[in-house]
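Example 3.2
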Amino acid sequence: MDKKVVFAVAGSGKTKLIVDRLDTVKNSYIITYTISNHKNLQDRVVRKFGYFPENIKLYTYFSFIYSFCYRPFCQDIVQTKGINYTTQPSQFMKKETRGHYIDKGDRLFSSRISKFLIDFEIIDDIVERLNKYADNIFIDEIQDFASNDFNFILQLAKADVRLLYVGDFYQHTFDTSRDGSTRKNLHTDYLSYQKEFEKGSISVDTSTLLKSWRCSKTICDYISKHLKIEIESNRTDTSIIKYLTNPAEIKSIFEDNSIIKLFYKMHYNYGCYSKNWGDCKGEDHYYDVCVVLNETTFKKYLTGDMQNLAPSTKNKLYVAITRTKNNLYFVSEKLLKKNQ
């Protein structure tokens, strides 16, 4: 069976690649990490068929691993009461003891559900269940799978089904979970990251989704030059990229609800049409975009050194900039505060 991971650039059609492979005959399981992308995928499937076909199952990652993988084999035996997403397990509890995976309230630690399934050798049962019910497995936002969860999705390649993972390495802004040193350096180097899939017998495709449909050549060239993230455009038109200093212009854009304002964090403090950089990932409905630069990023912007931002910050900035379909504006958060 075809087992592949496709690495893409922002706006190149990752969701379309998945949706184009769906039909009303084959049983397809689609898994994604974030709630926003779950909604996006749901909308795209309905748009294609006019309804949501019964042969297509759409899950967030934790709903999949809990309801499809854990409950059928473990619930009656282990007797747990849901998932603990907030408290991490104690590092002092021994492996394969209940407290290593489950809290005192009988809830599974979210970061160790996949570890539980691997440690207690439930993987073969899950693979057999997938072979029975699925023809295709699609996982979107693959770059956000980390720690034990990354180990788990590699194990799914044992299933005798068609498997397609899709993601953008540089849109890694969240982790499904973290667990001490487990896969701590997974996202340190792009080429090393690709090799981890190849070790799991999953072929790597870096050419199918090489160019963006969302971003113009102007935006792509800016990202390639200043963030040192290679991205090309399928488009030939140009955009405006402008740093705002004029108070009247800042006020006008700030009050314009057709222009999204994207903040590093705490966008809700500003009372405008806004989101945080990382939270807009997967969204494709913005036209003009205003990226608000926090103090650290603004200093790098002034010195032309944004490529050396901390990786997590640079990736979030990349997400924010690549929401742009038309014109891109920058403004410093400090200057924005002065003009409120």
